[in-house]
Amino acid sequence: MNAKPPASGPSRGETSPETAPRAASFDAFGLPPAVVETLTGLGVTEPFPIQAATLPDALAGRDVLGRARTGSGKTLAFGLALLVRTAGRRAEAKRPLALVLVPTRELAQQVSDDLMPYARALNVRLATVVGGLSINRQVAELRGGADVVVATPGRLTDLVSRRDCHLNQVRITVLDEADQMCDLGFLPQVSDILEQVPADGQRLLFSATLDRQVEELVRTYLNDPVHASVDPGAGSVSTMEHHVLVVHPADKYATATEIAARDGRVLMFLDTKAAVDQFTRHLRASGVRAGALHSGKSQPQRTHTLAQFAEGALAVLVATNVAARGIHIDALDLVVNVDPPADAKDYLHRGGRTARAGQSGTVVTLVTSAQRRDVNRMTSEAGVRPTVTPVRSGEAKLTALTGAKRPPNDTKADSGNAPFRGLGTRPGRPAKETRKSADARKAAEARAAARVRRGR
Q: Residue spans with biased composition (Basic and acidic residues) (predicted)?
């Protein structure tokens, strides 16, 4: 078993935002000149708090437990240390020297893209191993000698079982978004992987939240880790605004459509793949440049859609929670929960797509009256105090809050298309009447008939 034994020495304690070291530049960390030059060339001159709090210990080879929200700069916090400590060594075929585990394909690609310039500067060979892409190409990269592997647990497990990858020479292991990996059911695979890497190697674990399963990983596999938490209030980001817009159920999707038609990009979340596809088709029919992203799409489709959204070819990205991690889009200032998230953790990660790295952003959640209590409880658990506003489609205050406007192609009666009445309804037919509304309608009809009889 490769679990680490309990440390006999004193704990290194926790670094808070108040006590975190404030380095004026990356030079203070003693990074190689090639790395500092690359950072400067990319316009990265001053470390973010999570980087200042963890880089010195990570560079020294200590285990680190970092808590920070998405968009806080933690990729460089672990990535620079991993690359610097790996530089100068060469991996044998199928035996990487360092490993980064992430929960989703999108996050794996994002981490690889972020680290590639520094890997090139240090002559470190980097490989990305995820599902949905050619496994044979990934095998070829591993056989060629990949020094650092960024992987999702499922695909890495497949490669290990095929004996196309061996983990006995991994000296540095990073778990990024550990809470999401546990939520997605990867804990057994992650544990199996950690059992195969040398027990005396360095472990770096980063997570937005520290729940029971994450604490289990920390207790079992990290040795006297340095604790760094630069996110004490989960949702308290000063550059992020939170709004709950109370809408009538029949008006919900008309409201969402007007928000989607705004000037500027917007990321919109719905619960299911079918809902995402249907709403995306509706937006396109309304003249809104929209794309769909969910797990039912192939990896090339997902990559292409994300690239179009990042480049501005698409104004709206409609997604399930697959987009709540690993997407970094510059200057994305609005995230809309068309369907409210299931819990506080999902809310924080959806909202974390905006207001990244000090930028400003707004998170809007559409709720009906029946959903108010659950959403209030969820935002309270997330540490968020949103502004609550009743709105209707077409209102000026909706435009003031979100930039909403009438879509380019309004559905016309003479076009042969029925108005969009919401998801799950059949075109050209009204939504199914509930028992409560049917009873109310019949009672009103009876009262009207009684008045007519009395007037005779």
A: 430-445
Q: Which two tokens stand for residue 342?
A: 């299931």
Q: Which amino acid is at 169?
A: Q
Q: In whole angstroms, give the CA distance from residue 299 to residue 302.
A: 5
Class of domain 14-229: alpha beta
Full strand arrangement of the beta sheet holding 226-229? 14-15, 226-229, 64-67, 202-207, 172-176, 98-101, 148-151, 126-129
Rounded distance between C-alpha atoms, residue 174 and residue 196, angstroms: 14
Report the candidate in 321, 170, 149, 340 with the shortest Cα–Cα distance to residue 252.
340
pLDDT tens digits, one per residue of 392-430: 999 999 999 999 999 998 654 334 444 455 554 444 444
Q: Which of 177, 165, 34 is nearest to 98 (CA)?
A: 165
Longest dimension (CA), the chain: 100
Homologous superfamily of 240-415 in CATH? P-loop containing nucleotide triphosphate hydrolases (3.40.50.300)
Query: Per DSSP, what are the bridge partners of residue 291?
Result: 317
Separation between Cα atoms, residue 403 and residue 123, nearest integer Å: 46
Q: How far apart are CA 332 and CA 351, in angstroms?
A: 11
Question: Do 240-415 and 14-229 have the same topology in CATH?
Answer: yes
